[in-house]
């Protein structure tokens, strides 16, 4: 449970029940070793997700904030696409990079909130693999929900993260709904979430 001191209040310095994994206005990163099995196809799968939906009134739509790290469907036995998406209300950023199946990939998915940057970055095996083309200075990401590993819920991904031409440019113009079709099938090691 993502709440300070709720499990062992006598041992915790913080026992106010507030979320600990909550970056608000800070940059944050998800770091892990990720292994996707080789030799098979895969469907949409959520690796890691921390989403909080604030239910609003009938006049105002629900506000969702959080992040998702996922693998998109792939017919290739050797590679698939890693997708990192951050949302706050109607604002969405996404980044996507190809990863190899059959080996452990060191992944670091970061939301760089440095003033003037405000982009997503995906590092694979300690090299920058992709930076989101769009930047957005989001409001506070109040992620009160739990951190879910290996499963999750559907998210909307902004245009341009799945159809990529030979020059690396995006070609789709409409946002899509990323719907997980199966729980995560692979291995995760050394998972870390941190914010600065």
Major sheet characteristics: 5 strands, antiparallel
Oligomer: single chain
Number of strands: 12
Mass-distribution shape: globular
How much is the radius of gyration in Å? 17 Å
Helical fraction equals: under 10%
Number of alpha- plus pi-helical segments: 0
Please tell me the overall pLDDT: 82
Q: Low-confidence runs (pLDDT<50, min 5 residues)? A: 163-171
The separation of the N and C termini measures 21 Å
Q: Give the helix/strand class.
A: mainly beta
Strand order of the largest sheet: 8-7-6-1-12
β-strand amount: 35-45%
Q: What order do the helices and strands follow?
A: EEEEEEEEEEEE
Structural write-up:
With 196 residues, this protein is mainly beta. The chain has no helices and twelve strands. The chain has a five-stranded antiparallel sheet with strand order 8-7-6-1-12, with no helix packed on it. A five-stranded antiparallel sheet has the order 5-4-3-2-9, with no helix packed on it. It has a two-stranded antiparallel ribbon with strand order 10-11. A hairpin with a 7-residue loop joins β3 and β4 (79-88).
Layout: helices, strands, pairs:
Layout: E1 28-35, E2 45-54, E3 63-71, E4 79-88, E5 91-100, E6 104-112, E7 119-124, E8 127-131, E9 148-149, E10 155-157, E11 176-178, E12 187-195
Antiparallel strand pairs: 1-6, 1-12, 2-3, 2-9, 3-4, 4-5, 6-7, 7-8, 10-11
Task: Supply database-style keywords.
mainly beta; five-stranded antiparallel β-sheet; 12 strands; single chain; 196 residues
């Amino acid at each position: 449970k993502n709440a300070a001191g709720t499990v062992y209040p006598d041992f915790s310095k913080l026992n106010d029940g507030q979320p600990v994994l909550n970056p608000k206005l800070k940059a944050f990163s998800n770091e892990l070793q990720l292994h996707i099995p080789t030799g098979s196809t895969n469907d949409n799968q959520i690796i890691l997700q921390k989403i909080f939906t604030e239910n609003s009134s009938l006049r105002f739509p629900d506000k969702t904030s959080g992040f998702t790290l996922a693998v998109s469907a792939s017919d290739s036995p050797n590679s698939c696409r890693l997708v990192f998406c951050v949302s706050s209300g109607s604002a969405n950023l996404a980044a996507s990079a190809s990863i190899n199946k059959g080996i452990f990939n060191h992944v670091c998915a970061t939301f760089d909130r440095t003033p003037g940057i405000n982009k997503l970055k995906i590092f694979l095996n300690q090299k920058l693999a992709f930076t989101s083309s769009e930047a957005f200075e989001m409001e506070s990401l109040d992620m009160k929900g739990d951190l879910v590993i290996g499963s999750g819920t559907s998210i909307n991904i902004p245009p341009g993260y799945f159809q990529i031409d030979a020059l690396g440019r995006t070609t789709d113009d409409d946002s899509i709904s990323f719907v997980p079709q199966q729980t995560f099938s692979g291995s995760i090691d050394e998972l870390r979430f941190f914010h600065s």
